[in-house]
Structures are given as structure tokens and as C-alpha cells.
Design goal:
InterPro entries: DUF3800. The protein is of the alpha/beta class. The protein has one domain: Ribonuclease H-like superfamily/Ribonuclease H (Nucleotidyltransferase, domain 5, 2-Layer Sandwich). Helix content is 43%, strand content 19%. It contains eight helices and eight strands. The strands form two sheets. It has a six-stranded mixed β-sheet. It has a two-stranded antiparallel ribbon with strand order 6-7. Helix 6 links the parallel strand 4 and strand 5. Helix 1 packs antiparallel against helix 3 and helix 5 packs across helix 6. The radius of gyration is 17 Å and the shape is globular. The chain starts with a strand and ends with a strand.
């Protein structure tokens, strides 16, 4: 089973933000423990007394909000980079999928719904490529709990039955699951990945994205895992 942990970055309703990002990190199920453990060590360094209560959240870490305000910017930034590096250094089969939406380009449609169709179909095609190469695996998409939970589940059901713009989803084992990000280091990793991509497109700051850019799903020099609606 391949797990795609997803999160969004950018506030859909904020007129001051031009972009919305939906991104996910895909991994074979046995890779999840190793990556979670790497992220646990980062949290433990900042809060050794209660590391499980500390959430690795890109916006809060970089801005120094709440718990993170007690640490200097350099330390907070390096922690983000260390978490992203853990993903970059993980097994070669772990992939990155991302959709960057310029909100003007899809208005009046909801950019998150638009991005989910792209992300879902690209993950499905990745699993199909694995199947054609003799590695038959199903996949499941795991989101942070959000106001879009019902909408995304309905869309996923439609994609498996009626189909999406490019066909019918065939390789997902179930509709998306939704977890509290505080309970999942890998949802937190997806947040950091989405935030790093948002920083690149919204703030022209690519110091975080550059760490993970080579993990975008591709084959034969063709990039499949990145979609830009700009």
C-alpha cells in the first residue's frame, strides 16, 4: 500500500494571497515509521519534556508563533530544513506530488477542489505506472482534517465511479481519510512540504523547496507530480 499524506498551504479566502497549494508526500507503508521517527527527533530537541505535544507546522515555525516564539529564527528555519531533508534522504520510492493554483486562474471555482482533482489523478497514474512495471499496489490519500472533508470525500467517490476529467480512478483502495495533524508526523511533513512550495511561488523564496524538488514524481525526464495553474 502506498500512502499519500496531503495538506494545503495558502488561505483560499485571503485576497492578499495569489496562490493556493495542495501537496502530498507518497511513501510505501513500511517507510512511514522511519520518517515519523526522524521527525520525532526534531520535536524532541525543541521540547524534550513532551515532544508529542509539539506540532511541526511550517507557518508557525517560520513566523515564531505560540511555542516557537521562544527560539530564534535561525533555529526555527533550520528545523524546517532538517525535516524536509529527512524526506529527501528517505527511500527513493518516496515521491512528492503538488498542485500550485493561481487563484485568479480558476476563479470562481474553489482552488482546493480543482487541485484535488489534479493530485488524485496524478497519484492514481503513478500507481498505474508501478502496476505496469510489475509492482501492483493500491493507494490511499490521507488529509489533515479540514472544512473540505465532506467535499473531498464526495469528489473522490465520483472519481471512482463517474470519473474525473481524464478518466476513472482505479488504484485507490478507499476514499480519503482525515486525521488530526497533531497526531500524525507525516501530515505535519505534508504541511511543511506544502508550505515550502507556497513560499516559493508566493514569496519567491525557494530555500526550502530546493531541498525537496528532486523528489517530485517523474519518469524518463518527464515530470508527472507537479501541476501549475498560473
Amino acid at each position: 500500500m502506498h500512502l499519500l499524506y496531503c495538506d494545503e498551504s495558502g488561505t483560499t479566502a485571503d485576497p492578499n494571497q495569489k496562490h493556493s497549494v495542495l501537496a502530498g508526500v507518497s511513501m510505501f507503508e513500511r517507510q512511514s515509521y522511519w520518517l515519523s521517527s526522524r521527525l520525532d527527533t526534531i520535536a524532541e530537541r525543541f521540547n524534550p519534556g513532551d515532544p508529542n505535544s509539539l506540532e511541526l507546522h511550517g507557518n508557525a515555525m517560520l513566523a515564531g508563533r505560540n511555542f516557537w516564539r521562544r527560539f530564534p529564527l535561525k533555529q526555527r528555519s533550520e528545523a524546517i530544513k532538517e525535516a524536509l531533508s529527512a524526506f529527501n534522504e528517505s527511500h527513493i520510492s518516496n515521491k512528492l506530488f503538488a498542485c500550485i493554483i493561481r487563484k485568479e486562474a480558476v476563479s470562481p471555482n474553489n482552488p482546493v477542489q480543482f487541485a484535488f482533482e489534479q493530485l488524485c489523478s496524478r497519484f492514481d497514474h503513478y500507481l498505474m505506472r508501478l502496476h505496469k512495471n510489475g509492482d501492483t499496489q493500491r493507494g490511499i490519500i490521507i488529509f489533515d482534517k479540514s472544512t473540505y472533508e465532506k467535499t473531498i470525500q464526495n469528489l473522490a467517490t465520483d472519481f471512482r465511479t463517474i470519473g474525473h476529467t481524464w478518466g476513472v480512478v482505479r488504484n485507490l483502495a478507499e476514499v480519503p481519510l482525515f486525521l488530526d495533524s497533531k497526531a500524525s508526523r507525516l501530515i505535519q511533513l505534508a504541511d511543511l512540504v506544502a508550505y515550502s512550495i507556497f513560499r516559493k511561488y508566493e514569496k519567491n523564496d525557494d530555500q526550502y523547496f530546493d531541498i525537496i524538488s528532486n523528489r517530485i514524481d517523474s519518469e524518463g525526464g518527464v515530470i508527472h507530480g507537479l501541476f501549475e495553474s498560473l
